[in-house]
């Protein structure tokens, strides 16, 4: 059996971000065990040509790419925290998810591309990357989209200065995430992956906000100072989850280069929609083949009727109630400058766990 | 921003706010400053007065176009209308009142019918300056301070004087004619221009980058839910204040650069134009002091052309009419009108209360600082300072309350009401309480 290289590539990418012996990136945040992002370049020998080039010439950008990927995974885990599949990034099972063309795979690709775009763009604004400068020095005028969205007479004064340069982040995300898949391969999986990566990037790029402050006699808007700001990454996650819920199933066209929606009377997916080609498993029971960890032992909400409720989450296998005692921070105080100190309190919690 | 660590916050502030703000601040006004300078230099060439007036009209038109593009026609229409009225009434002795009513009608029509809110609010600063200039000229003609109706080019030169056409301030016609005579270039003139420009950029930075994040990043005060509302209101208020100072210092810069804004006594020339006194507003003695220190030329204008003329109807009526005139000049914006009228009541009640306390206690507790030779018996006792200190704290509270609803984009009526409700209508209730107290000690 030949393993598709694109899948292995991305799986390796995530594996390197998460040491094998640590369960989930959740615990690894801030841990000294988190690998140096630069080690990605040394240990992943099968990096595509463009990626290798970036590793050699712009290692600090790769650093931001790694941060962006982590950001994407954390957001994925947040957005799926109440679902049967909850984006646990254990090495083997997560890799299996990435080897399929299900909805969940689409979300992971999109949120990762969005995370990379967001992190690189933010690094630009904070002056951490010398390759990019103020957007104003490249294109002083407002983006056409902004002009068409706002009142035309205000455009002249609405934009200037050094806001978030999303174009740079967008380009770097594209170079790194899409690298291998551009080398002539046009099989259906490649097309789907490229599409979902793009959807993730657009979820950041198309939703830049402008914040302005008015200055003039007694607060009139004779003169304004404005900034372009990226949407908060939580907003990006929420938006992509909506698209996950409304994802379109596609199949390959006869020419081998296009994707066709499956089903009658379905609108073709646009650039921002997520797409998939295979149905998801139910994720109820552990299944090595499908990458499903099952839901046994998951915490559920015994009073909810949505996906986090015990009936749905536990696949109607039932649940048991348990009482645990936890330590939590409480009575936190700020001390000048700049420390917050907290006491420890014991808290009793009632949990419902899937059978 | 709350989730960022302090170090990360300050790092992001520098590159994400300080730099873009300065860049945008200069980017939008450098052409205005350049035109003011060119105008000043050309007036030094010994041109006949006709050409001097004409050059500032051209400069003024260009800067209006820079800032308002084609919407500048509304400012032009207003000035043409004013000149027409002055000319038609050139033999009358009531040009002031008649012109005032005409301008009022024009502004009301503009506000209610002629164009969309956003555009009108951009321009109302310039409209306000034009209206003030025309009204002051009309009243000065009535009183003989200006001896005859100026020629069209003189009038337009005054109205479109490039140093004051965008960011103000109002200057009198005689001040303008003095400026046309064109004083020598000097180090003190240049230093005044540069210092005012630097001050304006500093105020812009404070308005954009310091005030909105004052708590807890700059001052580590967290506060509970109630206190947090007031801290947030203070941040908004402070941001609005420094936006005003930015515009005021910018007005000082353009006016001085263009050659006006000096005083002259016995051949001693001082470039000393002052529009706002930030320290008197941020550390106020009283609301009266705040009001006059906010925009000195406008205070003088309101005092000369509204308050004194309305005094015949009683001081309370005069004060309310003054604030009403101020609100109308600012356009029919509900929240500015509401703020100004509230301010009118606050200042009036504080004034009469302190006057009464001063008489009863024979102490220096008036709204305005006593001169050193006043006849009050108690001047420097501890309780005198305590009373004045209490009124200062009250003024700070009023300022926080009134400034809290000024936002980057102008709000609507419901926002003002909502904001004041959030703060429990505190200033209104306090003012009412002080009024009751005042009636009790009459």
Automatic annotation (TrEMBL), chain A:
Family named by the database record: Belongs to the Wnt family.
Sections of the chain in a coiled coil: none
Cellular localization per UniProt: Secreted, Extracellular space, Extracellular matrix
Gene3D superfamilies, alphabetized: 3.30.2460.20
Protein name: Protein Wnt
GO cellular component, one term: extracellular space
Bilayer-crossing regions: 12-35
Example of a GO MF term: frizzled binding
Native species: Danio rerio
The entry's keywords: Developmental protein, Disulfide bond, Extracellular matrix, Glycoprotein, Lipoprotein, Membrane, Secreted, Transmembrane, Transmembrane helix, Wnt signaling pathway
TrEMBL record, chain B:
Membrane topology annotation: Multi-pass membrane protein
One GO CC annotation: endoplasmic reticulum membrane
EC number(s) recorded for this UniProt protein: 2.3.1.250
GO molecular-function terms, A-Z: palmitoleoyltransferase activity
Protein's cellular compartments: Endoplasmic reticulum membrane
InterPro entries: LPLAT_7/PORCN-like, MBOAT_fam
Pfam families with a match to the protein in the record: MBOAT
TM stretches of this protein: 59-86, 98-115, 155-173, 310-328, 334-353, 382-403, 423-441
Keywords: Acyltransferase, Endoplasmic reticulum, Membrane, Transferase, Transmembrane, Transmembrane helix
GO terms classed as biological process: convergent extension involved in gastrulation; Wnt protein secretion
Name of the protein in question: Porcupine O-acyltransferase
